[in-house]
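Reader question, answered in our methods column.
A reader sent in the components of a multi-part assembly and asked whether the whole thing could be modeled at once rather than chain by chain. We filled in our standard form and ran it. Here is what they sent:
COMPLEX SIZE: two components
ENTRIES:
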Amino acid sequence: MSKEKTSIPKGTRDFGPEKMAQRNYIFDAIRQTFEKFGFLPLETPAMENLSVLTGKYGDEGDKLLYKILNSGDFLSKTSLEDLRKGYKQVVAKVANKGLRYDLTVPFARYVVMNRHEITFPFKRYQIQPVWRADRPQKGRYREFYQCDADVVGTDSLICEAENILMINEVFSSLGIESFIIKLSNRKILAGITEVIGAPGKETEFAVSIDKLDKIGRERVFEELTTAGFTADSLIKLLPIMDMKGTNNEKLELLRKMLSGSEVGLQGVEELEEIFGYISNFGLKDDHTKLDVTLARGLNYYTGSIFEVIALNSGIRGSLSGGGRYDNLTGVFGMDGMSGVGFSFGVDRIYDVMEEINAFPEENLVSTQVMIVNFDAASAAHSLGILTRLRQAGISSEIYPDAVKVKKQMSYANKKNIPYVLMAGSQEIDEEKYGLKDMTTGEQTRTSIEDIIELLKG
Amino acid sequence: MSKEKTSIPKGTRDFGPEKMAQRNYIFDAIRQTFEKFGFLPLETPAMENLSVLTGKYGDEGDKLLYKILNSGDFLSKTSLEDLRKGYKQVVAKVANKGLRYDLTVPFARYVVMNRHEITFPFKRYQIQPVWRADRPQKGRYREFYQCDADVVGTDSLICEAENILMINEVFSSLGIESFIIKLSNRKILAGITEVIGAPGKETEFAVSIDKLDKIGRERVFEELTTAGFTADSLIKLLPIMDMKGTNNEKLELLRKMLSGSEVGLQGVEELEEIFGYISNFGLKDDHTKLDVTLARGLNYYTGSIFEVIALNSGIRGSLSGGGRYDNLTGVFGMDGMSGVGFSFGVDRIYDVMEEINAFPEENLVSTQVMIVNFDAASAAHSLGILTRLRQAGISSEIYPDAVKVKKQMSYANKKNIPYVLMAGSQEIDEEKYGLKDMTTGEQTRTSIEDIIELLKG
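And here is the structure of the entire assembly that came back:
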C-alpha cells in the first residue's frame, strides 16, 4: 500500500467521532446563542467565482486563494505566449473559480444578489469551513471552520453590545471563564493620529499597532518611524499606550486627550454608549477591557473593534473578534450598507477547552445501551427490545455478530457505551433482562419498562 | 456593478434562512435517526489528494473531479513539451489535490489510515457536501450534500434490516408516506445470469438492467444483446422480469427459478434472513418490495442492494439507496473489510417534501418575540427584558433603531416572528407590557412573567 494513497493534504484534518462530539459541543453553544439573539442561518457554496474573491484580501490574500482548475481542456484559452510569460499570466485563463477564503465576502455577495428580497436589518449567522493556502503550522490549518454573525442595515450600537453579550454567553456556556474582550474603536485610532500630529495616517498606525503583542513596542515604533511618524508624535503616543485603570477611568482620560479631535471624541462617545447598553442588559462581569492598542488588521473596520483573548493560557491569538464596517457591500457596487460582525475561532476555542479540561465527559456518549448478541434466538428477541428502546428515544444498538461476549464488552467499553443489556434464554423467558452499568460494573436484572425509565432519566 | 462580480458558479446555491430551516429539518431527522441506531459522526476534509480520488469512480468520474491548482508557480513542473501535448498531460503536474466526489472513498481512506485506532464494527455517519463537475440541470447540482451511514467490519444482515428501519423512520418523521424501498441482492443478479445461460456476465447485466426505468425494456435488451447475451437467454429472462406478487411469493418463485445456482440461492436466503429480522424488529408496514430488476450501478456492491423511490410523485430518481460491499478498502491495500452503507439524497427529499407540503410552518420561526424600539428610554428598559427572555431560553430581539413602528412591525412580519412586545413609558411604569400575537392580531397587556410562561409553553 503506498503511503501517498492513504494520506490527507497537509493542513487538513479528519474529525473522528470523539473529536466531532467535542467540536459539535462548541458549534451547538455558538449556534444556540446566535439563534437566541435572533440571528438566522445562511450557507453559501464552497466555490465562488474568482471575480468575487480576488482583490478582497490584499495581495497576500490573493496568493492564498485556492483556485479550481476549469473542467475539460483548461488550456484551451491559453497561448504558448502566455505560458512563456509564466504562471501569473496563465492562472486567470485556467481557473475561474476558487474556494471560499472567509465568510464575510460571500455574505456581502449574497446581500448584494438578494437585496430586493432581504428584510433589513438582516441578521445572519454562518458556520462553514474556509480554505487558505497558508503554510501549515501548529494551530494553523488550510481548511478550518469560521462561525460568523453579522447584522447589516443598521447603525445601532445595541448590536455591538449584543456582540459582547453573545461572546460572554458562549464562553460561559462552554465553561471558559478566564478571558478578556479587548474593545476599542477605529475612530479613537483616527483621533490618536490626529492629536499626536500624524493625521490621515490611521491605516499605517492600525497595521503597526496591531502587531504590538507579537513584536513589542520598540519594533512597532521602528515601523511607525519608517511610515513617517515623527519622534515627537511617538513621544506623544506614550501616555496613551501606557493608559491604566478601569474602563471608565480610561474613557475619562481619552476624552481629555482627544479633546482636539472630533472623530476621536465620537469614538469615545460610541464606546460609552455601548458600555451603557451592556449595563442596561444587566450584564455584571462583562469581561471587557478598553484597549486603545487594539487595531484589528483588516482595513474594512470603521467603528467599534473587539477581540477575545484567553487569560492564563498557553493558547495565543484571538478566540473571537469583530467590529463595525461602514460599507461592507461597496466593493460589489452597493453602497451605504453599514453593519457589525464577529466571528468565533473554533480551533482556538477547542485548544483552550482541552487545556482547561472543559469538555464534559458524557458529551462523548452517543449510544446509551448495547445489547449483547448471544446467538440467533437471543438476537431475534433483542431486535424487539431495540425497537422499544428506540421508540423511547434511546440510542441503542445490538452487537451485529454472535462473537465472544468478552469481545462485545470490549467494543462497548471502547465506544464509551454506559450500559450493556443481556437477553439470554432465561432472561427472555422471565422477561427480566440483565443490565450492566459499565462505569460501576454493577449488574441488575429488571424489566424493559424499568430499563427504559432508568435510561431516559 | 458588473453582473459577473455578484454571481455564483453555475450549479451551486446559496441557502438563505428559510431554505436553511427547511434543510436543517431534514438533516436533523436523518442525524437523529443515525444516532438512535448507534452511528457516530465523522467529517473528512473537502480537499483530498488526487491519488486518493483518481480511478475510484470510473473514467467518467475522473473527468468530473474538481482539481485544485497547486499553490505558487503551478507551472514549475511542466515543460513546454508537456504543454504542447495538451491538457491531459499537464493536469497531473499542475494539480495534486481535488474536491471530495462522494463520502465513500474518503471514508475508506479514513478507515485505512486509522485502522489501528478504530473499534470494529465501525458505525459512522457523515453529512457533508460533495462536488462534481457535472452539467447542471434541474435537480442536479455541482455542489450538494450527501448523508451517508456505513457499518464496516461485519457480515451481519442485521445491519441491512436496520438500514430498512432507518429509512422508514426518517421518512415517517418527515411525513413522507408514499414511497417504496426496492430491495434485491447482487447474488440474485449473478444467479440469474447463471440460470439464463450467461454466467460471469453479471456486471454487464447489472449496468444494463439498472437503466430499465429510464430507457425501457426494449433498449435494455438491445444493450444486453450487444454485450453478448443470446436471444435464448433473454427469453429465459422474461418470466423473471415479469415476476409479480408479495415479497414471500417472489422469494418462493426465485427459489425455484434459481435452484440451479448456488450463488443465486444464497442471495435468496440473505433476503429471507433480512425480512426475518425486519419482522423481529416489529416493523409492520416496511415499504419494501423485492425487485430483481434493481441493480444499483456502482460496481462495488456485492450483496444486498436497495433504493427508495417516491410514489405518486413528479420527483424522479432515488431518495435514498445503498448496499453491501465485500471489500471497501481493498483499493487502499486493506482487504477483507466487508460492510453495508446507504445514503439519503437531501435535495430530492426536499423536492418531495415541497411537492406534498410536508414542511411544518412553525419550523421556520427562529425568533419568537421582537421588542419594538420606541425611543432611547424604552430601548434601555427593553434590554433588561431581553435578558430575562433569553435567560428563559426564548429567542428574542429588539429592533435596533427607533424608526416608525409600522416599519418595525413589517420587519417582524417578514421574519415570521410570532409575537411583538411593546414597552412604552406607560407600560414600563406599570410593568405590564403590550404583547401582540402577529398571527391573530390580538393584543394583551401583561407581566413579563406571564409573557415568559406563554412563550415557553
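What stands out: The longest strand of chain A covers residues 122-131. Chain A has a mean pLDDT of 93.
Send us your own complexes using the same form.
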